[in-house]
Amino acid sequence: MTTAAPALETARHGGPPPKTLAEELRLHLADEIVRGTLAPGAALDETLLARRFQVSRTPVREAIRLLAASGLVEARAHRAALVARPSPDHLAGMFEAMAELEALCAGFAAERMNAAERRALEDKHEDLRALIQSGDPQRYHEANEAFHACIYDGAHNRYLADMTLATRARVQPFRRAQFRILGRLAKSHVEHARVVEAILRGDRQAAAGAMRAHIVTVREEYEHYAETI
Questions:
Q1: C-alpha closest to that of 177 among 27, 63, 16
Q2: How high is the pLDDT of residue 15?
């Protein structure tokens, strides 16, 4: 029995709503790829992975498909997928699009959030503050997703929210990795505070600018993290 299977089981108890098994597998494999445990060019054999994680091949296949969408895996017809790293240009393009989409959401949220939504955003911000001391990047990552989703919803533009979520899913492994940098959780919270303050003031331009700057910093922090592994 491997140590990986119990880790997946633990992730299904307590905390936020449970992820699908494919999503848990994706996160686990993404971590190994971003950290370099699974090296570029390594084959991802569905049968071996299913045996390792003690699951069927179906969630493994779905996890690999999701990884391919982030550029972490190169899917090949009728052959095992290969671990890949997105080119610097491809990664830069994803982050550039992410920054603009999130900036649009924050700007619209500043204009359109109602009182209840603003209170919910403040609550999510405080949830993140409470997690800084824990030093748990996974719990912070999950609360961070809820914070950003609150802003997407507050933009009151479902099409924009869907596009932003789809792009976020592709960039997620890289956004998640930067939380492992010492002191990054506290810095992220300060960046969020600027976004929240602008939204609560109803300042569309400032909210968009603060969010754009935040995502640019996330990219820079990921690049710094990648240099250390």
A1: 27
A2: 43
What stretches of the chain adopt beta strand conformation (E)? 43-44, 73-76, 79-83
Q: Read off the pLDDT of residues 160-189 as tens digits, 9 standing for 90 and up.
A: 999 999 899 888 888 888 888 889 999 999
Place of tokens 């098994």: 21
Distance CA 71, CA 66 (A): 9
Dihedral angle of Cα 76, 79, 85, 87, to the nearest 10 degrees: -30
Integer Rg of the chain from CA: 18
3-class DSSP state for residue 83? strand
User: Would you state the structure tokens that stand for residue 117, as one six-digit string?
Assistant: 């939504």
Residue found by looking up tokens 């204009």 in the block: 111
- Main-chain phi, psi angles of 179, to 5 degrees: -70, -10
In the numeric block, the tokens 């999950």 are attached to 142
- Sign of the alpha-carbon torsion through 143, 148, 153, 159: negative
Structure tokens at 189: 């919270």
How far is residue 113's CA from residue 150's CA, in Å, rounded to a whole number?
A: 10
pTM of this structure: 0.78
b/e sequence 127-158, b meaning 16+ C-beta within 10 Å: bbeebbeeeebebbbbbbbebbbbbbbbbbbe
- Rounded CA-CA distance 176/196 in Å is 21
